[in-house]
Amino acid sequence: MISTVKLHVKFQSPYYTRSQRKMIEYEMLSDTIKNYKPIREEPPRLTMIFDTETSGLLPKGECSIDQKPYILQLSYVLYDEDKEMVVEEYNHYIRLHDMTIEIDKGASEIHKISKEILNTRGIPIEEALTQFYKDYRRSTRIVGHNISFDMQMILIEVERNYHKMTANGCVSPECIFNKMYEKVHGVDHFDTMEHGIHICNIAVESNRYGKLGKDEYMVPVNVNGMVFEKRMYKKRPSLLELLLQLNLEVGKLHDSIEDVYGCVRIYQKIKHVVR
Fold first, then answer.
1. The whole model's pTM is what?
2. Domain Exonuclease: where (predicted)?
3. d(CA 275, CA 264)
4. What does the alpha-carbon distance between residue 115 and residue 98 come to, in Å, rounded to a whole number?
Protein backbone atom coordinates (compact mmCIF):
# COMPACT_ATOMS: atom_id res chain seq x y z
CA MET A 1 0.00 0.00 0.00
CA ILE A 2 1.28 3.51 -0.80
CA SER A 3 2.06 5.40 2.38
CA THR A 4 0.36 8.73 3.05
CA VAL A 5 3.76 10.46 3.07
CA LYS A 6 4.72 9.12 -0.34
CA LEU A 7 1.27 9.84 -1.65
CA HIS A 8 1.46 13.43 -0.44
CA VAL A 9 4.83 13.89 -2.15
CA LYS A 10 3.61 12.34 -5.35
CA PHE A 11 0.44 14.38 -5.45
CA GLN A 12 2.40 17.59 -4.90
CA SER A 13 4.86 16.70 -7.65
CA PRO A 14 4.35 18.66 -10.87
CA TYR A 15 5.35 15.55 -12.83
CA TYR A 16 2.00 13.78 -12.18
CA THR A 17 -0.95 14.56 -14.36
CA ARG A 18 -4.53 14.42 -13.17
CA SER A 19 -5.06 11.02 -14.79
CA GLN A 20 -1.93 9.66 -13.10
CA ARG A 21 -3.17 10.87 -9.72
CA LYS A 22 -6.48 9.12 -10.38
CA MET A 23 -4.55 5.94 -11.15
CA ILE A 24 -2.69 6.18 -7.83
CA GLU A 25 -5.99 6.64 -5.98
CA TYR A 26 -7.40 3.59 -7.77
CA GLU A 27 -4.37 1.48 -6.80
CA MET A 28 -4.73 2.59 -3.19
CA LEU A 29 -8.41 1.65 -3.13
CA SER A 30 -7.74 -1.74 -4.72
CA ASP A 31 -4.97 -2.43 -2.22
CA THR A 32 -7.22 -1.47 0.69
CA ILE A 33 -10.02 -3.77 -0.49
CA LYS A 34 -7.59 -6.65 -1.05
CA ASN A 35 -6.12 -6.36 2.46
CA TYR A 36 -9.39 -5.62 4.23
CA LYS A 37 -10.03 -7.83 7.24
CA PRO A 38 -13.47 -7.48 8.81
CA ILE A 39 -13.61 -7.01 12.57
CA ARG A 40 -14.86 -10.28 14.01
CA GLU A 41 -17.01 -10.16 17.08
CA GLU A 42 -16.01 -12.51 19.86
CA PRO A 43 -18.55 -15.32 20.32
CA PRO A 44 -20.72 -14.90 23.42
CA ARG A 45 -19.53 -16.57 26.62
CA LEU A 46 -22.25 -19.15 27.10
CA THR A 47 -22.93 -21.14 30.25
CA MET A 48 -25.01 -24.31 30.01
CA ILE A 49 -27.24 -24.84 33.05
CA PHE A 50 -28.86 -28.27 32.89
CA ASP A 51 -30.87 -30.86 34.78
CA THR A 52 -32.40 -34.29 34.20
CA GLU A 53 -35.28 -36.32 35.57
CA THR A 54 -34.57 -40.04 35.57
CA SER A 55 -36.18 -43.45 36.02
CA GLY A 56 -34.28 -43.92 39.28
CA LEU A 57 -31.03 -43.47 41.17
CA LEU A 58 -27.67 -44.90 40.16
CA PRO A 59 -27.17 -48.40 41.59
CA LYS A 60 -24.25 -49.09 43.91
CA GLY A 61 -21.56 -51.39 42.56
CA GLU A 62 -21.02 -52.75 39.07
CA CYS A 63 -23.96 -53.43 36.76
CA SER A 64 -24.70 -53.61 33.06
CA ILE A 65 -25.60 -50.53 31.05
CA ASP A 66 -29.20 -51.75 30.76
CA GLN A 67 -29.54 -51.91 34.55
CA LYS A 68 -28.64 -48.26 34.94
CA PRO A 69 -31.40 -45.61 35.02
CA TYR A 70 -32.74 -43.79 31.97
CA ILE A 71 -33.25 -40.09 31.35
CA LEU A 72 -36.96 -39.24 31.21
CA GLN A 73 -36.64 -35.45 30.82
CA LEU A 74 -33.68 -33.37 29.67
CA SER A 75 -33.69 -29.61 30.15
CA TYR A 76 -31.10 -26.87 29.87
CA VAL A 77 -30.65 -23.20 29.12
CA LEU A 78 -27.78 -21.27 27.60
CA TYR A 79 -26.93 -18.26 29.75
CA ASP A 80 -25.03 -15.35 28.20
CA GLU A 81 -22.42 -14.27 30.78
CA ASP A 82 -21.99 -10.81 29.27
CA LYS A 83 -25.70 -10.00 28.95
CA GLU A 84 -26.43 -11.86 32.22
CA MET A 85 -29.55 -13.46 30.78
CA VAL A 86 -30.88 -16.72 29.38
CA VAL A 87 -30.68 -16.64 25.59
CA GLU A 88 -31.78 -20.18 24.66
CA GLU A 89 -33.90 -22.90 26.26
CA TYR A 90 -34.26 -26.64 25.61
CA ASN A 91 -36.80 -28.88 27.34
CA HIS A 92 -38.09 -32.30 26.27
CA TYR A 93 -39.50 -35.49 27.68
CA ILE A 94 -37.69 -38.57 26.40
CA ARG A 95 -39.60 -41.43 24.80
CA LEU A 96 -38.57 -44.83 26.16
CA HIS A 97 -37.27 -47.11 23.42
CA ASP A 98 -38.60 -50.08 25.40
CA MET A 99 -41.85 -49.72 27.31
CA THR A 100 -40.87 -52.57 29.64
CA ILE A 101 -38.32 -50.23 31.27
CA GLU A 102 -39.45 -49.64 34.84
CA ILE A 103 -39.74 -46.22 36.45
CA ASP A 104 -38.82 -46.41 40.12
CA LYS A 105 -41.86 -45.76 42.32
CA GLY A 106 -39.97 -43.29 44.52
CA ALA A 107 -38.74 -41.33 41.49
CA SER A 108 -42.20 -41.33 39.92
CA GLU A 109 -43.76 -39.91 43.09
CA ILE A 110 -41.27 -37.03 42.99
CA HIS A 111 -41.31 -35.97 39.32
CA LYS A 112 -44.79 -37.34 38.36
CA ILE A 113 -43.57 -38.51 34.94
CA SER A 114 -45.52 -41.49 33.60
CA LYS A 115 -44.92 -43.79 30.65
CA GLU A 116 -48.02 -42.31 29.04
CA ILE A 117 -46.49 -38.81 29.14
CA LEU A 118 -43.24 -40.14 27.67
CA ASN A 119 -45.01 -42.10 24.94
CA THR A 120 -47.25 -39.21 23.83
CA ARG A 121 -44.99 -36.18 24.40
CA GLY A 122 -41.46 -37.58 24.34
CA ILE A 123 -38.79 -37.49 21.64
CA PRO A 124 -36.06 -40.09 20.91
CA ILE A 125 -33.11 -39.82 23.29
CA GLU A 126 -30.60 -39.60 20.42
CA GLU A 127 -32.36 -36.47 19.15
CA ALA A 128 -32.08 -34.80 22.56
CA LEU A 129 -28.46 -35.89 22.99
CA THR A 130 -27.53 -34.56 19.55
CA GLN A 131 -28.80 -31.09 20.43
CA PHE A 132 -27.19 -31.30 23.86
CA TYR A 133 -23.86 -32.18 22.19
CA LYS A 134 -24.05 -29.18 19.85
CA ASP A 135 -24.86 -26.73 22.63
CA TYR A 136 -22.33 -28.26 25.03
CA ARG A 137 -19.61 -27.52 22.48
CA ARG A 138 -20.70 -23.86 22.40
CA SER A 139 -20.43 -23.53 26.17
CA THR A 140 -17.51 -22.48 28.38
CA ARG A 141 -19.11 -23.33 31.73
CA ILE A 142 -21.43 -26.13 32.86
CA VAL A 143 -23.72 -25.51 35.84
CA GLY A 144 -26.03 -27.81 37.77
CA HIS A 145 -27.25 -28.74 41.24
CA ASN A 146 -25.54 -31.98 42.26
CA ILE A 147 -24.05 -31.80 38.80
CA SER A 148 -22.08 -35.05 39.07
CA PHE A 149 -25.29 -37.12 39.01
CA ASP A 150 -26.67 -35.42 35.89
CA MET A 151 -23.28 -35.66 34.17
CA GLN A 152 -23.18 -39.40 34.86
CA MET A 153 -26.68 -39.78 33.44
CA ILE A 154 -25.73 -37.95 30.24
CA LEU A 155 -22.65 -40.16 29.85
CA ILE A 156 -24.71 -43.33 30.40
CA GLU A 157 -27.10 -42.28 27.63
CA VAL A 158 -24.21 -41.29 25.35
CA GLU A 159 -22.74 -44.77 25.81
CA ARG A 160 -26.08 -46.36 24.95
CA ASN A 161 -26.66 -44.16 21.92
CA TYR A 162 -23.13 -43.40 20.68
CA HIS A 163 -23.60 -44.77 17.16
CA LYS A 164 -26.97 -43.08 16.72
CA MET A 165 -25.38 -39.79 17.73
CA THR A 166 -22.56 -40.15 15.22
CA ALA A 167 -25.14 -41.00 12.55
CA ASN A 168 -26.85 -37.71 13.48
CA GLY A 169 -23.66 -35.78 12.78
CA CYS A 170 -22.02 -35.70 16.22
CA VAL A 171 -18.35 -35.99 15.27
CA SER A 172 -17.05 -36.99 18.71
CA PRO A 173 -19.72 -37.63 21.37
CA GLU A 174 -16.96 -38.79 23.71
CA CYS A 175 -15.83 -35.17 24.12
CA ILE A 176 -18.83 -34.50 26.40
CA PHE A 177 -17.47 -33.88 29.93
CA ASN A 178 -14.06 -35.16 28.80
CA LYS A 179 -11.32 -33.66 31.01
CA MET A 180 -8.82 -33.17 28.20
CA TYR A 181 -11.42 -31.56 25.93
CA GLU A 182 -12.55 -29.21 28.70
CA LYS A 183 -9.00 -28.27 29.63
CA VAL A 184 -8.09 -27.44 26.04
CA HIS A 185 -11.30 -25.47 25.43
CA GLY A 186 -11.40 -23.74 28.81
CA VAL A 187 -14.63 -25.33 30.05
CA ASP A 188 -15.24 -25.40 33.81
CA HIS A 189 -17.98 -26.69 36.12
CA PHE A 190 -20.01 -24.89 38.77
CA ASP A 191 -22.05 -27.00 41.21
CA THR A 192 -24.61 -24.86 43.04
CA MET A 193 -25.01 -27.61 45.64
CA GLU A 194 -21.31 -27.56 46.57
CA HIS A 195 -21.27 -23.75 46.63
CA GLY A 196 -24.37 -23.82 48.81
CA ILE A 197 -22.82 -25.86 51.65
CA HIS A 198 -21.34 -22.83 53.40
CA ILE A 199 -24.28 -20.61 52.47
CA CYS A 200 -26.89 -22.79 54.17
CA ASN A 201 -24.64 -24.13 56.97
CA ILE A 202 -27.01 -27.00 57.77
CA ALA A 203 -25.39 -28.97 60.61
CA VAL A 204 -26.08 -32.72 60.68
CA GLU A 205 -24.70 -35.41 62.98
CA SER A 206 -22.25 -37.71 61.23
CA ASN A 207 -22.15 -41.48 61.66
CA ARG A 208 -18.63 -41.79 60.25
CA TYR A 209 -15.55 -42.79 62.22
CA GLY A 210 -11.83 -42.15 61.85
CA LYS A 211 -10.21 -39.08 60.38
CA LEU A 212 -12.43 -36.04 59.93
CA GLY A 213 -13.62 -35.69 56.37
CA LYS A 214 -14.28 -32.59 54.33
CA ASP A 215 -16.74 -30.25 56.09
CA GLU A 216 -16.73 -32.41 59.25
CA TYR A 217 -16.01 -30.99 62.69
CA MET A 218 -16.41 -31.84 66.39
CA VAL A 219 -18.68 -30.01 68.82
CA PRO A 220 -18.82 -30.43 72.62
CA VAL A 221 -22.09 -31.79 73.99
CA ASN A 222 -23.15 -31.76 77.65
CA VAL A 223 -25.34 -34.68 78.71
CA ASN A 224 -26.24 -34.89 82.39
CA GLY A 225 -23.10 -33.04 83.37
CA MET A 226 -20.86 -35.19 81.18
CA VAL A 227 -19.16 -33.50 78.24
CA PHE A 228 -18.28 -35.42 75.11
CA GLU A 229 -17.70 -34.51 71.48
CA LYS A 230 -20.17 -35.10 68.73
CA ARG A 231 -19.07 -35.50 65.11
CA MET A 232 -20.93 -33.12 62.79
CA TYR A 233 -20.81 -32.11 59.15
CA LYS A 234 -22.32 -29.47 56.90
CA LYS A 235 -25.03 -31.00 54.77
CA ARG A 236 -25.16 -30.50 51.02
CA PRO A 237 -28.34 -28.45 50.59
CA SER A 238 -31.20 -29.43 48.35
CA LEU A 239 -32.25 -27.02 45.63
CA LEU A 240 -35.23 -25.99 47.76
CA GLU A 241 -33.10 -25.35 50.86
CA LEU A 242 -30.69 -23.18 48.90
CA LEU A 243 -33.45 -21.19 47.19
CA LEU A 244 -35.07 -20.48 50.56
CA GLN A 245 -31.77 -19.53 52.18
CA LEU A 246 -31.07 -17.03 49.39
CA ASN A 247 -34.64 -15.65 49.53
CA LEU A 248 -35.28 -16.62 45.93
CA GLU A 249 -38.47 -17.67 44.17
CA VAL A 250 -38.98 -21.42 44.57
CA GLY A 251 -41.27 -22.29 41.67
CA LYS A 252 -42.41 -25.82 40.83
CA LEU A 253 -39.49 -28.10 41.64
CA HIS A 254 -38.81 -31.66 40.36
CA ASP A 255 -39.71 -30.67 36.82
CA SER A 256 -36.27 -30.45 35.24
CA ILE A 257 -36.90 -27.17 33.38
CA GLU A 258 -38.20 -25.57 36.60
CA ASP A 259 -35.15 -26.90 38.45
CA VAL A 260 -32.96 -25.38 35.75
CA TYR A 261 -34.48 -21.93 36.27
CA GLY A 262 -34.16 -22.34 40.03
CA CYS A 263 -30.50 -23.09 39.39
CA VAL A 264 -30.24 -19.98 37.19
CA ARG A 265 -31.54 -17.79 40.01
CA ILE A 266 -29.07 -19.33 42.47
CA TYR A 267 -26.18 -19.01 40.03
CA GLN A 268 -26.91 -15.33 39.41
CA LYS A 269 -27.18 -14.61 43.15
CA ILE A 270 -23.99 -16.48 44.09
CA LYS A 271 -22.05 -14.83 41.25
CA HIS A 272 -23.00 -11.35 42.46
CA VAL A 273 -22.19 -12.23 46.08
CA VAL A 274 -18.77 -13.58 45.05
CA ARG A 275 -18.04 -10.35 43.13
1. 0.81
2. 46-275
3. 17
4. 10
> Got the DSSP string for 161-188?
HHHHHHHTT-S-GGGTT-HHHHHHTT-E
Contact 237, 197 (CB under 8 A): yes
Nearest to 90 by CA among 40, 34, 136: 136
Query: pLDDT digit string (tens) for 46-85?
Result: 999 999 999 999 999 899 999 999 999 999 999 999 999 9
pLDDT tens-digit readout, 240-274: 999 999 999 998 888 999 999 999 999 999 987 65
The domain of 159 spans 46-194
Q: How far apart are CA 2 and CA 24, in angstroms?
A: 8
Q: Which CATH number do you get for residue 151? A: 3.30.420.10
DSSP percent split of the chain into helix, strand, coil, nearest 5: 45, 20, 35
CB contact at 8 A, 150 and 144: yes
